[in-house]
Amino acid sequence: MTKGNARKFRTKEVRLLRLYSEWHETRRGQIQRQCLGLLQQIVHLEPRFSLRHEFQEAF
């Protein structure tokens, strides 16, 4: 992964955690769809991506 791609990846990762947190509080379907779409983009960039580590750090 190049430096630019790594930065974009990290930005998407942070955004996903924020969206997930917002969805967890509101349970809005639109936010859930945004989370899933963003997760799809992240997995496309990094197929071995795991949320476990990120969620343990964030929550």
Structure in a nutshell:
With 59 residues, this protein is mainly alpha-helical. The protein has helices spanning 3-26, 29-45, 51-58.
Question: Would you kindly provide a written description of the structure presented here, covering whatever features stand out?
Answer:
By secondary structure, this protein is mainly alpha-helical. Helices cover 83% and strands 0% of the residues. It has helices spanning 3-26, 29-45, 51-58. α1 (3-26) packs antiparallel against α2 (29-45). It is globular and about 35 Å long.
Reported for the largest beta sheet, the result is: none
Distance between the termini: 27 Å
Q: Give the averaged pLDDT, no decimals.
A: 88
Overall body shape: globular
The total strand number stands at 0
Helix content: over 70%
Q: What is the N-to-C succession of helices and strands? A: HHH
Rg computed from alpha carbons, rounded to a whole number of angstroms = 12 Å
Low-confidence stretches: none
Indicate the topology.
Elements: H1 3-26, H2 29-45, H3 51-58
Helix pairs in contact: 1-2
